[in-house]
Amino acid sequence: MTMTAATVTIKQGRSVRRAAIVVPWLRNFSLLAALLGGWQIASAVILPRFDPQIGVLLPSPAGVAITLAGLLASGELLIHLAASVKREAIAFLIAALAIPVGVAMGWRHSIHAQLYPVLEVLRPIPPLAWIPLSILWFGLGELQNQFIIFLGLVFPILLNTVEGVHRVDRNLIRAARSLGASEWKVLRRVVIPAALPQIVVGVRVGLGTGWMALVAAELVGANSGLGFMINDARSLLRTDIVVAGMVAIGVAGLAIDLGIRALARRLLPWSPSLTKRD
């Protein structure tokens, strides 16, 4: 094979590899691109024919992108995003106490029998239903916001922890006990590591529901955060800022979820359910 032919073969191989990466990526985002294109045409061309003021109610994707860039450049979006993330982080640290409670419930039937009926009564109540009471109890402010976010976080974490402990292979527990391991060692060395994948699932779900509850709480009783920014823009009829805030909420929620998944893959590489690509 001549040098020219070898060079051509190498370039062709690189092109094939690039295509193998780019084509699936384009396919995954084709629906999103179609939706954005339809939205742009509808808001800029079709709907204004029926109502010239429609741009106020339905901003175009291009207008939202320009607004989003302006909010980023001014730093306003980052300030509100940081406030929301801080609230979520504080509430998560408190809700993480549900993990040892869930382990105890899954390990001891007596504890489970006492707590589970109470949880099953409280769990179906949406966090938003607690907003009126939380305002009466804590007033409008950070404590009220933290309470609503905590309610969104705690139940998925707690119930998935209980389920993770219940799913541990009993043969592993019997084997550890037959080797003379104490109850504490069995719990620490066998049960908790085996339950960790399910606990991580609970954390992922909890952070998602907590993020939704956070935005709703900020709509009612906050002076900063993405929810506050959206509500303030609504009162000024700045729907471009409203939609930009919604986009920021979605992207931030996705980033939180991807971060948890990446951390789980690194810390629990032996778990097939966490290491497989979604």
Automatic annotation (TrEMBL):
Query: Gene3D superfamilies per the record?
Result: MetI-like
For this protein, the record's InterPro entries field holds:
MetI-like, MetI-like_sf
Q: Any stretches that span the bilayer, and where are they?
A: 29-50, 62-83, 89-109, 146-165, 242-264
Asked if the Swiss-Prot or TrEMBL record annotates the protein with the keyword Transport, the reply is yes
SUPFAM superfamilies listed in its UniProt record: MetI-like
Classification via PROSITE patterns: ABC_TM1
Q: Name one Pfam family in it.
A: BPD_transp_1
Q: Which GO terms describe its biological process?
A: alkanesulfonate transmembrane transport
Top-level division of the source organism's lineage: Bacteria
Q: Where is the ABC transmembrane type-1 domain?
A: 84-264
Any one annotated GO CC term: plasma membrane
Give the record's membrane topology.
Answer: Multi-pass membrane protein
Q: Mostly located where? A: membrane
Cellular compartments annotated: Cell membrane
Family as reported in the entry's similarity comment: Belongs to the binding-protein-dependent transport system permease family.
Q: What does this protein do?
A: Probably part of an ABC transporter complex. Probably responsible for the translocation of the substrate across the membrane.
Q: What is this protein called?
A: ABC transmembrane type-1 domain-containing protein
